[in-house]
Amino acid sequence: MTGRRARAKAANRAALLEAARDAFGERGFEAAAVRDIVRRTELAPGTFYNHFEDKDAVFRAVVEATGAEARRRVRAARNGAAGFEEFVEAGYRAYFSFIAEDPATFAFVRRNRGAAALQDVLPLGPAELAEDLAELAARGELPPLDLDYCTHAMVAVGIELGARMAERDPPDVDGAARFATALFLGGVTRR
Question: What digits encode the pLDDT tens for the residues 105-125?
Fold first, then answer.
């Protein structure tokens, strides 16, 4: 009984997270209400409160899940790279692919970019990127540069270019990755 109950609880939570992502993506954090989330599921309103305290809590959970998946994909791509140029391109390509493959998640991110909770868990994971860049620098694979500026410039380019790419029909992952890589590497080598 407990195994079945645990699976049902996990399935309910997943359904609520998906419904919340869609509601916040469509309406935005301010306009969406708990009832908008619950209506997108077959669950009773009380079930929502078994999993989340309020709208803020479910929003934060969606942000954390979205950020974790994006960071996982990007970091895996960067970790498999041979050298700085491949590191940059692989990271951008993984992030842009994440956006193109899951329009509902990106609609959530784009629609709620200004929400405070979203600022805490940026999709490209600046802390992880800073660690990876520091490791490259320690191995001598980076020209001398300010790693803090480099980290935040890479994140900003990814977020802004990713938003623009997502608005194109169809999204051009290869073009966006090539452009971001060329733009960034040109700036680093010509500083």
Answer: 778 877 887 665 555 544 447
